[in-house]
Design a protein that fits this description.
heterodimer, A: Aldehyde Oxidoreductase, domain 4, Aldehyde Oxidoreductase, domain 4, 3 domains, seven-stranded mixed beta sheet, B: 163 residues, alpha+beta, five-stranded mixed beta sheet, 6 helices, 5 strands, globular
Chain lengths: 706, 163
């Protein structure tokens, strides 16, 4: 896997060019250390290959800063690690703590992480693409290892002994004669700094102590007691509440605005700025009443596609030459002409919504021309740039703080809520909180891209895949390329118009691309009269993919379902350097089918936290069930038709069957990103099983019928 | 505007408002009890679940006019970090959450469920917890936590201080 992953075009929300300035300076560290009361501060510069982590597609702006992370040890031995990454439930606060504990040889309880505060933490592109474990964890490991070396050097100097005779263990540096210093005793009253780049060698993976253990969340109690303050829970002195008046449809603009009734409510301020309309009130209930009292007539844009006409719209508006990521090898037409079987299909992939239970929310507070914004986002530094631009500020006049979030799933990369709260707070002269309603979150967040995927492939008389054509309109390029060996290929992505805002989703387009690819592999195997697992294995040259597929077949009992009348389907794939295979067993019910059990085999390199990984895998499977079975955004005339929790069905307890998860731990391989990939094979495992019961429509959700 | 007397976590609060104002809004924004979460405002996700006269109720669609005078219990009165309720302990032990946003509502809904169904089957749990969403999909763990809490609470002498 490359250290510089291509930025997939379906990250549409990131594609607007935003030249930004990075003003963090190293002298800030010395000030910071002084403010921390001295101790030991170790700073890591970013290794060059990582300096633009996922940074393509940003309009060729400046290279982000070269400072990757830092770590402080105070006079009590407490370790504070600073990282720009965001905790969204994916459990990195815990897994990164395990990493630091291992390398620093200090207990988990002595470590805390400061995350995602642009005033305190190093620049970070954002928490997406499953990049934290493969890129941030090794960096923190290096910083922690460097800190350990500095502590050993300090102890060696105090004892005037050879450093090689000293050992770091359990938060202490010990000499062979039994003397020891705690880390706090060494750091206390000091002003030690270390700046590292390449860094000392990390522990070999087979030496891991804390990593590899099923450590529970370091702050789990704060969640079960409700004590953790998410952004909607933040309270500031004299805080007011805001609401944004939303257009009736996408692209609608206000024609007339009557704010008489809203202004008549005690304490209400109406804020208008261009097309932006908002209200601020002393209480949340008053803000709601004021928003309801605003009378706005809107000019709408006519002739917008609906969820029925969207697929034609995508093809009509395709833009050639955009997106790239195409592959043309061999001669597809010739291979097809000589084929024994040719199978083609055109699949429809709907928009779906992330539906994080914590909706977009922000609290903004201005002081002395600077603004601080608490908000849920996966890109605190990106949001800092957005806010700075919106208010013509320099970036050091904007501070973005992201409390651990009520999740996101790729849906919170942008900063509209931060800008809205800041605009209202600026007008009100006091701190303002906004919390999106669920309908606002559906309509004014962004959606997983809608798409059409046309696929045509052939099998020769020997049962070999001879050609593979795959044309993706708007879904995106993640997982676009087939992992199967096919000599003649034409694979292409096409950008199109999207009537609604669209952007990243867990696994990006890998879910759509794997669904279509694996459904088609199943169809080809059926056409050729070959077992679907054997057919795949005959075209796989990657041992890791072969291993997960073979294991899933074995664990699921392939090809025999566990009970008569049931159907078994299977799919596999590779994404973000991780390998997944999923088998689904279905039963027939009068109006369709029911998923009875799922078997999942997952391999993502060396496992840092097996219980955390299992939790993420279960969650990705559950989320995948939604898109596979019932999630789809419906719309017409620029409005969503099912943009509420009552109308948009998400997976609930009853929807999740027994899931058997087998994790293959590869300590011989580096850890790959883990939280997204398991979602990609749920739908094709179910869809290919459903074919046992009849024709399956070429679309998502999986539907019996043509 | 009228005045309503709310009994929350054993304390009495006088609140000014309209009879159909949302209880969740009052809890979160006026009484500063933010443990009950706003998820959908429609009564369909359960993140705002509280106990009203011991019954799990979605507070976002509960109206202050209708709950005045009743005993309202929020997650803040269920247990503390030092002294967890057995249901909270079971959620912690099973790590039955990821982002944790649904967790207070899930804990309260579980307490409500176990009051009426002390020994629930998995089918009971799926049916009775249908109005609580975990978008992170930690459902198998939550089921495990509920079953383990049920076992724990039905053991004599365990968790009795919370009954």
């Amino acid at each position: 896997m490359s250290d510089r992953p291509a930025l997939e075009p379906e990250r549409y929300e990131l594609n607007e060019p935003q030249p930004y300035r990075f003003e963090l300076e190293r002298r800030g560290f010395l000030q910071a250390l002084a403010a921390m009361g001295g101790g030991l501060l170790v700073v890591a510069t970013l290794p060059d290959p990582l300096a633009q982590e996922s940074g393509q597609g940003r309009g060729g702006g400046a290279v982000p800063g070269d400072l990757a992370s830092w770590l402080h040890i105070d006079g009590t031995g407490h370790v504070t690690v600073y990282t720009g990454k965001v905790e969204i439930g994916q459990n990195i606060r815990t897994s990164l703590t395990q990493t630091v504990a291992d390398e620093l040889r200090t207990p988990l309880a002595s470590i805390s992480l400061v995350m995602a505060d642009t005033a305190l933490t190093p620049f970070d592109q954002g928490t997406f693409g499953s990049r934290t474990t493969p890129t941030m964890a090794p960096q923190l490991a290096k910083v922690a290892a460097a800190a350990r070396q500095i502590l050993i050097d300090q102890a060696a100097a105090r004892w005037q002994t050879d450093r090689s005779t000293l050992d770091a263990k359990n938060g202490r540096i010990a000499a062979r004669d039994g003397r020891s210093f705690s880390y706090g005793e060494i750091a206390n009253g000091q002003a030690l700094t270390g700046l590292i780049d390449a860094g000392p060698a990390q522990m070999a993976r087979d030496q891991w102590v804390e990593r590899g253990k099923p450590v529970h969340k370091v702050d789990g109690r704060a969640f079960v007691t409700g004590a953790h303050a998410y952004t909607p829970d933040i309270v500031r002195p004299n805080m007011l509440f805001g609401r944004v008046i939303r257009p009736v449809a996408v692209a609608a603009t206000p024609r007339t605005v009557d704010d008489t009734k809203a202004k008549a409510i005690a304490g209400v301020t109406v804020v208008r700025d261009g097309n932006f309309i908002g209200v601020v009130a002393p209480h949340e209930r008053a803000a709601k009443a004021a928003a309801a009292a605003m009378i706005v007539e809107w000019d709408r844009v006519a002739g917008q596609p609906s969820s029925d006409t969207i697929y034609d719209h995508l093809k009509k508006t395709m833009r050639t030459g955009e997106g790239g990521n195409g592959r043309v090898t061999g001669d597809v037409a010739r291979a097809r002409a000589g084929a024994a079987h040719v199978v083609e299909a055109s699949y429809h992939i709907p928009y779906i919504a992330h539906v994080p239970l914590e909706p977009r929310s922000a609290v903004a507070e201005w002081a002395d021309g600077k603004v601080t914004v608490w908000c849920g986002t996966q890109r605190p530094f990106g949001v800092r740039s957005e806010v700075a631009q919106a208010f013509h500020l320099s970036e050091d006049q904007v501070r973005v703080i992201v409390p651990d979030m009520g999740s996101a799933y790729g849906g919170k990369h942008t900063g509209e809520h931060a800008i809205e709260a800041a605009r209202l707070a600026k007008a009100a002269g006091r701190a303002v909180k906004i919390v999106y309603t669920r309908a606002e979150e559906f309509m004014w967040g962004y959606l997983r891209p809608v798409g059409v995927i046309d696929v045509r492939a052939s099998v020769d008389a020997q049962g070999r895949l001879s050609s593979w054509e795959f044309h993706n309109y708007n879904s995106g390029t993640a997982g676009l390329q087939t992992p199967y060996v096919v000599p003649n290929q034409h694979v292409q992505f096409y950008a199109t118009d999207s009537p609604f805002r669209q952007g990243s989703y867990r696994g990006l387009a890998a879910t759509a691309n794997n669904y279509v690819r694996e459904m088609h592999m199943d169809a080809l195997a059926r056409a050729a009269g070959v077992d679907a697992v054997a057919f795949r294995l005959a075209h796989i040259d990657d041992d890791r993919l072969r291993a997960v597929l073979t294991k899933a077949a074995e664990k699921s009992g392939w090809p025999k379902p566990s009970a008569p009348g049931r159907a078994l389907g299977i799919a596999c794939g590779v994404e973000k350097g991780s390998y997944i295979a999923t088998a689904a067993e279905l039963s027939k019910i009068p109006d369709g089918f029911r998923v009875e059990r799922l078997t999942v085999v997952y391999e993502c390199g060396a496992i840092v936290n097996p219980d955390g990984l299992r939790n993420q895998t279960e969650g990705a499977i559950a989320q995948g069930l939604g898109g596979a079975l019932f999630e789809a955004i419906e719309f017409a005339d620029g409005q969503l038709s099912n943009g509420t929790m009552a109308e948009y069905r998400v997976p609930r307890f009853k929807d999740v069957p027994p899931i058997e998860i087998v994790l293959l731990d590869r300590r011989d391989l580096p850890s790959a990103g883990a939280g997204e990939t398991p979602i990609i094979c749920v739908a094709p495992a179910i869809g290919s099983a459903a074919r046992t019961f009849g024709t399956v429509a070429p679309k998502l959700p999986v539907t019996l019928g043509s | 505007m009228a005045r309503f007397v709310l009994r929350v976590n054993g304390r009495t609060h006088e609140v000014e408002g309209e009879a159909n104002d949302s209880l969740l809004s009052v809890l979160r924004y006026e009484l500063n009890l933010t443990g009950s979460k706003f998820g959908c405002g429609e009564g369909h996700c359960g993140a705002c679940t509280v106990l009203i006269d011991d019954q799990a109720t979605r507070s976002c669609v509960a109206r202050i006019g209708a709950v005045a005078g009743k005993a309202i219990t929020t997650i803040e009165a269920i247990g503390t970090a030092d002294k967890l309720h057995p249901v909270q302990q079971a959620f912690l032990d099973a790590e039955a959450f990821q982002c944790g946003y649904c967790t207070p509502g899930m804990v309260i809904a579980t307490i409500g469920l176990l009051r009426t169904t002390p020994n629930p089957s998995e089918a009971d749990i799926a049916r009775l917890m249908d109005r609580n969403v975990c978008r992170c999909g930690a459902y198998p763990r939550i089921v495990q936590a509920i079953k383990s809490a049920a076992a724990q609470m039905s053991t004599p002498g365990r968790g009795s201080d919370h009954e």
